[in-house]
Amino acid sequence: MKTLDIYEELKGNSYPGRGIVIGKSADGKSAVTAYFIMGRSVNSRNRVFTETADGIRTEAADPSKLSDPHLIIYAPVRKLGNKTIVTNGDQTDTIYELMDKQQTFEQSLRTREYEDDAPNYTPRISGIMHVENGTYNYAMSILKSADGDPSSCQRFTFAYANPVSGIGHFIHTYMGDGSPLPSFEGEPKKVNIPDDIDEFTDGLWNALNEDNKVSLFVRYIDIATGAEKTKVVNKYTK
Question: Based on the number of CB atoms within 10 Å of its own CB, is 179 exposed (0-12), middle (13-18) or buried (19 or more)?
Fold first, then answer.
């Protein structure tokens, strides 16, 4: 698979929706993830990321403008021991709770389907990173309808053991703008991952469509020590 320039990939798509990137920095020292949200409506744009004890949550930038919290208020990132869970919905909590009961990432997601937002049936995208004793692996998942047919839920999981330095994988909800919105197709895209968290954060934020971007989360985890660096960017403020 060809390695894509993540910034050019984002610049070429005005509405990828929500997206997850997971990989390893070019110097091989850091486990890396990024999660972004976008919005077309006032309700979906009216959001910020706020840091919590074990990750981040979405909150209304202006509570007076919040018309429907369903599907837009959730915890995209949570930590469970040496695992970091990243998703585009409240399946974060499902993964956290069921993995805490010794179920696997894949097993926990069998209890969920795509979002109930007809006619889009937005895919649920999820990722999990496992950093322990100097080792690192990750997995990604997408739950989607059968080309817009809600009678069938299609489940795909992609696992990456001993990730290659400088390489990550990018999965997002939509192929582009449209009505209804076309769901992501294929396996996660192979993309480049730099060493520097500031460079990656700035590059991603600047590449996202100016009108539609809302918030961005980036984390670098030192594979040897587990130390974390986190950056959060919000277009709107509380």
Answer: exposed
